[in-house]
Design a protein that fits this description.
CATH class of the largest domain: Mainly Beta
Order of helices and strands: EEHHHHHHHEEEEEEEEEEEEEEHEEHEE
Largest sheet: 13 strands, mixed
Number of helices: 9
Helix content: 25-40%
Shape: globular
CATH architecture of the largest domain: Sandwich
Number of strands: 20
Strand content: 25-35%
Oligomer: single chain
Number of domains: 3
Structural class: alpha+beta
CATH topology of the largest domain: Jelly Rolls
């Protein structure tokens, strides 16, 4: 596994750190966590940004109760014969696989100090699980598409139409406001607000930034703590951190193919392709650095991601190894 990059729901996570996060999950779910262990867990999360990112993935890895018996899953996680610091490599990998499948919403929702991010998503007005997409009409007639693993709150008042994007990505086709006074249409993220100016557009909550792509009309960005207010126009993408605007650039309509259940690639580096694919699949996708730069093109159905992964050796010199159902590794092809 040396030289490998692991993606978990769209974000790269070092395998060793991911296993540490899984070990901490087992400790916290044991039902017998000591104050010293809880303090050590907080210290581990704060020791490096990647630790926090790994934990956030653990938080968001929900939905497995659709496929697994909840009590059996919890029993597998809580039967620990050694402290988390001494769990074997094999046990760590088992925990990581379970982490990618177990439904954590109820457990974390009751212990919000452990998982505030997941609690916010679980309590959101609208949400989708990993691999799920949803389309609906908002109270003003605007159309909302939620991508995989997304959550929003709807906050309409007499003075504004506000969506709070808790996590993930949405595409919005705003309806014309006919009432008086005029109510602006806003999407609020952790980094600021995006105001629609007669628009069809997407907003994505990424790691530490908000990304916007406009199909029609324009969107004005307002960073939470910044002065810049750039306008993103049709055919453009941009974004913001909490303090600054990101550069504006041209975007392809392919960026919204997820609305039709497709993922489009045009000479895309394999690492980036797997990065995007991982947003729609439970578990971990690993990519060996030796093949990360290989280019892939095609139209891929999001409804059958296992078939997509297994087809990669047909067009690229790679081997796809299913270490578990929820852990897939893409390596350089070995001589036969």
């Amino acid at each position: 596994m040396r030289g490998a990059t692991v993606y978990a729901q769209g974000q790269p996570i070092d395998l060793a750190i991911a296993m540490q996060a899984a070990e901490w999950l087992a400790t916290l779910m044991s039902g017998a966590t000591t104050p010293a262990e809880k303090a050590a867990w907080h210290e581990w999360r704060q020791a490096h940004p990647d630790h926090e990112r790994a934990w956030q993935h653990i938080e968001s890895a929900s939905g497995g109760l659709r496929e697994l018996d909840a009590q059996a899953s919890r029993k597998a996680l809580t039967q620990r014969s050694r402290p988390a610091s001494t769990i074997s490599r094999r046990r760590s990998l088992q925990l990581l696989a379970w982490t990618a499948t177990i439904g954590l919403t109820g457990w974390f929702g009751a212990r919000s100090d452990y998982a505030p991010g997941l609690a916010r998503a679980a309590l959101a007005d609208l949400s989708t699980g990993v691999g799920e997409r949803r389309e609906l009409t908002l109270p003003d007639g605007s159309r909302l598409h939620l991508n995989s693993g997304s959550a929003v709150n709807i906050r309409y008042t007499g003075t504004q139409r506000l969506l709070q994007l808790v996590q993930g990505e949405v595409f919005i086709a705003t309806a014309r406001e006919t009432g008086r006074p005029y109510r602006p249409f806003l999407v609020e993220t952790a980094q600021g607000q995006a105001q629609a100016l007669g628009t069809r557009y997407s907003v994505r909550q990424a790691n530490g930034s908000t990304l916007v792509a406009v199909e029609e009309g324009a969107v004005q960005l307002m960073p939470r703590h910044g002065d810049a207010s750039p306008v993103i126009r049709a055919g453009q993408g941009g974004g913001m951190t909490a303090h600054d605007a990101l550069p504006v650039h041209a975007v392809s309509p392919d960026i919204w193919a997820w609305r039709q259940g497709l993922l489009l690639a045009d000479a895309t580096p394999l690492r980036d392709f797997l990065h995007e694919l991982s947003r729609y699949r439970h578990g971990l996708l690993g990519c060996d650095d030796a093949v990360a730069g290989l280019r892939i093109s095609g139209v891929f159905p999001l409804a059958d991601l296992d078939a997509v992964l297994l087809s990669l050796p047909d067009s690229l010199p790679v081997d796809v190894r299913l270490r578990t159902r929820y852990w897939v590794q893409v390596d350089a092809r070995q001589p036969r």
